[in-house]
Amino acid sequence: MTKPVLFVTHKLPQAVESRASRDYITRLTPDNTSWATNGAETARLASEIGAAGILCVPGDRLDSACINALPPSVKIIATFSVGFDHIDIVAAKARGIVVTNTPGVLSFAVAECALMLMLTAARRTGEADRSVRAGKWSTQIAGVTLENKKLGILGFGRIGQKLASIVRGFPMEIHYRNPERVPSELEQGAIYHDNDAAFLQTIDFLSMHLPDMEGTRKWLNAARLDMMKRGAIVVNTGRGSAVDDTALIAALKSGHIRAAGLDVFDGEPKVNPAYLTLENVTLLPHIGSATIETRDAIGYKALDNIDAVLLKRTAPPDRVV
Ligand code: DGY
Fold first, then answer.
1. What pTM was estimated for this model as a whole?
2. Which of 20, 36, 119, 212 could form a disulfide with 85 if both were Cys (CB 3.0 to 4.6 A apart)?
């Protein structure tokens, strides 16, 4: 039987690439040397190579125009991520294209990244690192501690809950805000808030884990930042669209927000240039899930999903539509 063609929009980890090429003709582009940069190109290349499946990443925009332009050979879009806001799932459903994601396997890595950003922002390690590189030995760089502080987790799904379970080892009180209260066994002692004001007025650290959707865009705006304690710290490893950058930049400049750690940006890979001028913000290029172990696990999970649809191995475990 001829192997189905799998259009891979970005380079895969070596172990995942080896497994993929066992069962599929994997193609980046027709000449297999580079990758697509936008939705129109993705659709054009998928047609050119007769793709049966597309393995994409959050940086790809598979909007309705792209999905409607895909050739009928495409049966599945499998994203190498838990987030699937970059794919128009309504358009995919209308075309009968299965969409899958990779929940679970990256929760620890992203939660770990959130904790790392909390520590980095609190202890000013970015500034300290830059001082050593600049030949200065700035021992006066003093941060704040996590000890006896209150952490607020915004979005208490898999990743938010994983962060709570890691932080339970710290002397911190954990609070959370979520559309609804989770069952008590998943709360792990975290305190639920059913309104933004009480939540934001209580916490010293805000860790954001919101998906990009109607109702979450620009969630952290000037009004909500004003509700926060002076000197609070903001960390975002969810989606950049949940932050009103202009408002956060103003709060970082005034010192109302002491520091921020951002792994995700509205319109990434573009970053609001004002962030680049601020010492009290740590900027990462969306590497929340980027550990070698996790990237392999994400790749295997994405391939399990593709195998289920294209090779009819098992029911796709992570079907979104
Ligand atoms: C995802 O997989 O959606 C996350 O953004 C990884 O950081």
1. 0.94
2. 212
